[in-house]
Amino acid sequence: MTGCAGPGRGRAAAGDEEPSGPGPGTVGDRERLARAALTRVLEPGDERGGRWLSRLGPVELMRRLTARDGSAEELSGMTARRLDGYRLRAGAVQPERDLAAVAAVGGRLVCPGDREWPSQLDDLGDARPIGLWVRGRPDLRLWALRSVAVVGARACTPYGAHMAASLGAGLAELGWVVVSGAAFGVDGAAHRGALAAGGATMAVLACGVDVAYPPGHAELIGRVAEQGLVIGELPPSDHPTRSRFILRNRVIAALTRGTVVVEAEYRSGSLATARSAQRLGRFTMGVPGPATSGLSAGVHELLRGEGVLVTDASEVAELVGDIGELAPVRRGPVLPRDLLDAVCARVLDALPARGPARARDIARTAGTGADETLGRLYELHSLGFVERDGDGWRLTPRPTSDGELRRGGT
Amino acid sequence: MTGCAGPGRGRAAAGDEEPSGPGPGTVGDRERLARAALTRVLEPGDERGGRWLSRLGPVELMRRLTARDGSAEELSGMTARRLDGYRLRAGAVQPERDLAAVAAVGGRLVCPGDREWPSQLDDLGDARPIGLWVRGRPDLRLWALRSVAVVGARACTPYGAHMAASLGAGLAELGWVVVSGAAFGVDGAAHRGALAAGGATMAVLACGVDVAYPPGHAELIGRVAEQGLVIGELPPSDHPTRSRFILRNRVIAALTRGTVVVEAEYRSGSLATARSAQRLGRFTMGVPGPATSGLSAGVHELLRGEGVLVTDASEVAELVGDIGELAPVRRGPVLPRDLLDAVCARVLDALPARGPARARDIARTAGTGADETLGRLYELHSLGFVERDGDGWRLTPRPTSDGELRRGGT
Fold first, then answer.
1. At A230, is the secondary structure helix, strand, or coil?
2. Nearest CB to A304: which of B296, B304, B309?
3. Whole-model pTM?
4. Could you tell me which CATH class the domain B121-320 is placed in?
5. A121-322 domain in CATH 3.30.70.2190?
6. Residues A30 and A61 sit within 8 Å (Cβ to Cβ)
7. CA of B312: which chain A residue's CA is closest?
8. What does the domain layout of chain B look like in residue ranges?
């Protein structure tokens, strides 16, 4: 549970013996506890709560919601009954227990202000998540930098499942992190495609990251947590609701560079994700299907608007990768090599000077675990040190001062 | 073989006892004969020939190509051998016979300068057809004003054939003339769909309009000539070649308001038509299919560029109809009613003041033949007098001077 960028990447769980002040790029214990508590009080996407949060900060907001001194009543824009609802929830929180429960399944709460926080979520404004509960080894921020969402119908056709799996595998092979919602149908096929290609995938849940929903995907969600990341706004053990599914979609849209919709009926949740992505200035893409298929009608509607038609992973990568913001890949690392943490540096050192190597050979050379190594390779990829080469990985060729290309992290 | 616009619509065939000077909107006998001859000398789309034609006019160009006075040698940009090729053809022409042969199958040669000439073909510049051989009753110019091309693969899938037929029928029902190339596959299905809906369709051939190519479509081409229009640049009895097919596509593109591609592989002729349409500023549309289908790959390539995704006829009509140039439909007739010829006026009079009527009932009231009536209804539609209403036709509601809507051609 560490990441490439070495110093100051604390992810203090309650009870950690962290020094009194937080390190750089890390929020303090009190704030993390308050945010953990607030994820149980405020529903995802509660913009009124978001406005209080940015005005008062999480610690003061929690204090008011639990105080009996009349300060809660000063929170604007609420009926007494609605306020009672918040207070009822606030009175029952046990954030230390939640943080411990998530730590027990290898998780953590990533907060705005943490170095691991994906700052593109700030585009959501007052609807920004209070924090993200995260299971899995890789660094959320680095993975999100090179991620694409693949979403679509639960009741997809075999064609939709095939396209989702093929995009998942193809994007993973091109070094992209495949983000989806772990649902049946297109979501599951996209995750499985990425996993089958030995690639990176991230599931954004509408429930606690320790809850397997849908239950039929328990094994899949477990594998994603092992090899990738499982994240969500809801505290441990919390369950999905209809509105939580819908609001989960805005996180998928905001987190990724673009959203690909594979089969969607009119007015489906996947289209909601795509429209969120559009509003946020992300790329919106759709996979065409027969004009006679109701399951492609929503996608076609999208493609008649702003959406870009894509038929394979390379077309997706071409679109989302063709942007200056992806500078790490094109311009070389954003971090000097000596800022990498010890494990990342070992993995990087394990790559041969020339030509590709397989992840398991790199793991053997580095003396790191297979999943750990893969996670670090994707982080190093985000940072521009390495790239995919067929089945394996190689050092990124880098321009030297005299314009020649050299290999690897100097 | 007449049209709605009454006076001056002569289509003089050789041997007609036309008065010495042509009427307004009609080219003279000498020019028509010369253009008829030139369709046998110059290949379709010959831009060098087109430049000579606009510099010298058809009569002088034919004179030079058949003269032995050295004036042919002054035609610029030609080797002696190439000139011999032109001369050989020019020496063998029999334009009177060609005009008579086409007249014998109910046809005519429509030339630039004729009122029936579709002036949008002038967008082709030096590659503009020398003239168009036309079989069928309706007025080419009026039909072309409200026409859409539906083209695609010869070896289409059942899905492609279904979509082509459905677009053909749907566009015809919405009052559009369906233009295609009479080939197997998508073309044939589009024509048949329009015919089955009792609608208007036009075939643009890459051979003489009296040649049924492909032979397996002889009956279909015959039906199109009966109920609609069969047109082409090649003189009677001339046969198609590979380059003639390709050059035929530019006529389809230029003649219509837009081109819909239904199934096309990479680098197919249908894509060439679509690209011509794009260059000419026409609408370019494509029907999506499975991303796994090679027969949709060309369409998807188009849709990733300038092409607009369409899934049914109403989406096509919405796009191509949404333009000020279609003023006749939106602003009312372009011709005063008293300029209509007698048959058109009779058909118009046969429509009820309120509500729709079927074409066969209109024919009975007007005392005109069924095909003739249908042709005139489409002409009246182009002129803004009538519109489709379900299975039937009705008078177009028209704004009065005080802004109220009234029905029909006043």
1. strand
2. B309
3. 0.75
4. alpha beta
5. no
6. no
7. A291
8. 29-95, 121-320, 327-407
Query: In the numeric block, which tokens belong to residue B297?
Result: 């790959």
Pair of tokens at residue A107: 């998780």
Identify the CATH assignment for A325-407 out of 3.40.50.300, 1.10.8.60, 3.40.50.2000, 1.10.10.10: 1.10.10.10
- Spans in chain B with pLDDT lower than 50: 1-3, 5-21, 323-334, 399-410
Task: Please name every residue paired with B229 in a beta bridge, in sequence order, or none if there are none.
Answer: B202
A300, A308, A309: residue with CB nearest B311: A300
Distance CA B173, CA B151 (A): 18
Query: Which amino acid belongs to residue A339?
Result: L
Q: Once rounded to an integer, what is the mean pLDDT over residues A304-326?
A: 83
How far apart are alpha carbons A312 and A176 in whole angstroms? Answer: 13
Apex B198 CA angle, B192 and B203, nearest 5: 45
**pLDDT tens-digit readout, A316-334:** 999 998 544 333 333 333 4
Each residue of B137-149: b (16+ CB within 10 Å) or e?
bbbbbbbbbbbbb
Of chain A, the end-to-end C-alpha distance in Å amounts to 26
> Residue B367's pLDDT is what?
86
| Alpha carbon distance A191, A183 (integer Å) | 10
CA A366, CA B123: separation in Å to the nearest integer? 68
Confidence (pLDDT) at B374: 86
The reported pLDDT for the residue numbered B6 is 42
* Position with higher pLDDT, B111 vs A367: B111
CATH code for the domain defined by B327-407: 1.10.10.10
Q: Rounded mean pLDDT of chain A?
A: 86
Q: pLDDT tens-digit profile of A190-210?
A: 999 999 999 999 999 999 999
CB A177, CB A204: distance < 8 Å? no
Chain A residue with the nearest C-alpha to that of B311: A291
C-beta atoms of B315 and A308 within 8 A: no
pLDDT of residue A327: 34
